[in-house]
């Protein structure tokens, strides 16, 4: 009997060395702050229980929640322009504090600047408003980025570019083909270790009627369009994680 007990004790200890206990990793606590215009707000996506859960922010949040505990602050404001976002960043102390503690910040801005350009362009066929507004937008975006980095130099920033919402043959398609790539070029210059640039232009090319509400004169993405944007964000974010060693 004693030999049997000793054998069981030895077996127990040997199994501990052979099969070490599995220690579950605690989920990371992340704060995600989404800044921007109606795309951040998810305008154009369908509603479920009065919530727009098919926008790119909810989809990205759901993806992050698989491995993390997430706190989300959505500052999506329909109609917000680049100058409006800059003013908000400079004046809102509550938002500044959110940015200081954010692990991830996404920014979608520029679409309403584009719409303002359309109005100016229709009044002046010389094309001057396009160049002038892009120049103003470039300088404004530089200040927006400086504001974000001054409050949080280490956070991961995701900059969302523009797509052309107008299909081939639309009277505004050519202007969209000029404005969106130039705007995306501005954002591309900010790409670095912790700043991601998400460019939806090529993915949406030829898909405006399928992925937006442009058939109803609404440039916003539908559920399919927002899902495509989410997949682009996910791809860039996962690439960053593979390139950045865990801390």
Automatic annotation (TrEMBL):
Gene3D superfamilies per the UniProt record, alphabetical: SGNH hydrolase
Keyword terms: Hydrolase, Signal
InterPro entries tied to this protein: Ester_Hydrolysis_Enzymes, SGNH_hydro, SGNH_hydro_sf
Top-rank taxon: Bacteria
GO function term, MF aspect, one: hydrolase activity
Signal peptide residue numbers: 1-24
Protein name: Spore germination lipase LipC
Species assigned in the record: Sutcliffiella rhizosphaerae
């Amino acid at each position: 009997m004693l030999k049997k007990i000793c054998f069981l004790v030895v077996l127990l200890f040997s199994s501990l060395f052979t099969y070490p206990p599995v220690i579950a990793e605690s989920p990371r606590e992340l704060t995600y702050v989404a800044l921007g215009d109606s795309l951040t707000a998810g305008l154009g996506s369908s509603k479920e229980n009065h919530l727009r859960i098919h926008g790119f922010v909810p989809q990205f949040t759901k993806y992050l929640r698989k491995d993390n505990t997430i706190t989300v602050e959505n500052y999506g404001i329909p109609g917000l322009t680049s100058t409006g976002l800059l003013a908000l960043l400079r004046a809102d102390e509550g938002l500044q504090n959110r940015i200081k503690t954010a692990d991830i910040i996404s920014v979608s801005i520029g679409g309403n600047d584009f719409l303002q350009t359309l109005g100016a362009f229709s009044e002046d066929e010389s094309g001057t408003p396009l160049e002038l507004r892009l120049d103003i937008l470039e300088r404004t975006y530089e200040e927006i980025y400086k504001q974000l980095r001054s409050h949080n130099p280490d956070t991961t920033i995701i900059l969302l570019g523009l797509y052309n919402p107008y299909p081939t043959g639309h009277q505004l398609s050519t202007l969209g083909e000029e404005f969106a790539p130039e705007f995306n070029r501005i954002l591309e210059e900010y790409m670095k270790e912790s700043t991601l640039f998400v460019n939806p232009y090529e993915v949406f090319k030829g898909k405006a009627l399928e992925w937006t509400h442009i058939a109803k004169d609404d440039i916003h993405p539908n559920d399919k369009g927002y899902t495509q944007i989410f997949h682009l964000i996910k791809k860039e974010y996962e690439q960053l994680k593979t390139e950045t060693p865990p801390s």
